[in-house]
Amino acid sequence: MNDNQLLRYSRHILLPQISYEGQEKLVNSHALIVGAGGLGSPVALYLAAAGVGTLTICDFDVVDLTNLQRQIIHTTQSVGINKAVSAQQTIYEINPEVAVKTIQQKSTEDEFVGLVAEADVVIDCSDNFATRYTLNRLCVRLKKPLVSGAAIGFEGQITVYDMRSSTSPCYHCLFPDNGEDTDLRCATNGVFAPLVGMIGTTQAAEALKLLMGIGESLQGRLLLLDALAMEWRTIKLRRDSACIVCGI
């Protein structure tokens, strides 16, 4: 790290659990963020501010005025701009030390293979099951840690699937693919603005811990948030031995 980086990240370096070695790991890390909306906004902002050296941001959508109620990486001036590009512009204002790659088209599974393979951690901030199942299959195959989050209405959830561990379940263990599209989207169901920030920042925290190899991840635990009652619940997860994606 150069002198400017040592100063920028000094409050991280002061933490004994992180120190110089942990911060250097972040600077040399590569995170893949799929989705630059409500969840992807705080994920991208905090990973960039924390000094993750390379971010790849995937989003084929453009910023709409209705997004601005919760997608805090975008501004009114961003309306009509591709979300990945808008996120890149904001990140460079916050931390020009970070390299940001943008994927502005809808990626196929074959295209995602290369993106996942290059990353040290994958953060799923998408809003549809097709993308979630695709990322899960690839992270299982390539043994990449996957930080998964979802939020709708006043309720959110987050967990970590890390197939580097023999005991970790995968997304399909928890939500088997029955071929039906039962997605709940903010456009038709609404979402409480701070909720996506709470889930997204938790995803960012989990991703940073995984990259540095510190603390205990949410692998094997699903956090559920009811923001209306402001209650967190934890559900323990187990790998499904009959899972067609990760089953032994």
Chart the SSEs and their pairings.
Layout lengths: L2 H6 L1 H4 L5 H9 L2 E5 L5 H11 L3 E5 L24 H12 L4 E5 L5 H10 L2 E4 L4 H14 L3 E7 L2 E7 L9 H4 L11 H4 L3 H20 L8 E6 L4 E6 L12
Parallel strand pairs: 1-2, 1-4, 2-3, 4-5
Antiparallel strand pairs: 5-6, 6-7, 7-8
Helix pairs in contact: 4-5, 4-10, 6-7
Structure commentary:
The structure is a single chain. The chain has a single domain, classed as 3-Layer(aba) Sandwich (Rossmann fold). It has ten helices and eight strands. The chain has 248 residues and is of the alpha/beta class.
Computed over alpha carbons, the radius of gyration is 17 Å
| Count of domain modules | 1
Report on the biggest sheet.
Answer: 8 strands, mixed
Name the structural class. Answer: alpha/beta
Strands side by side in the biggest sheet: 3-2-1-4-5-6-7-8
The CATH architecture comes to: 3-Layer(aba) Sandwich
Determine the N-to-C terminus distance. Answer: 42 Å
The average pLDDT score comes to 94
The CATH class label is Alpha Beta
Fill in the CATH topology.
Answer: Rossmann fold
The share of residues in helices is 25-40%
Task: Give me a quick take on this structure.
This protein is of the alpha/beta class and 248 residues long. It contains 10 helices and 8 strands.
Key phrases:
248 residues; alpha/beta; Rossmann fold; eight-stranded mixed beta sheet; 10 helices
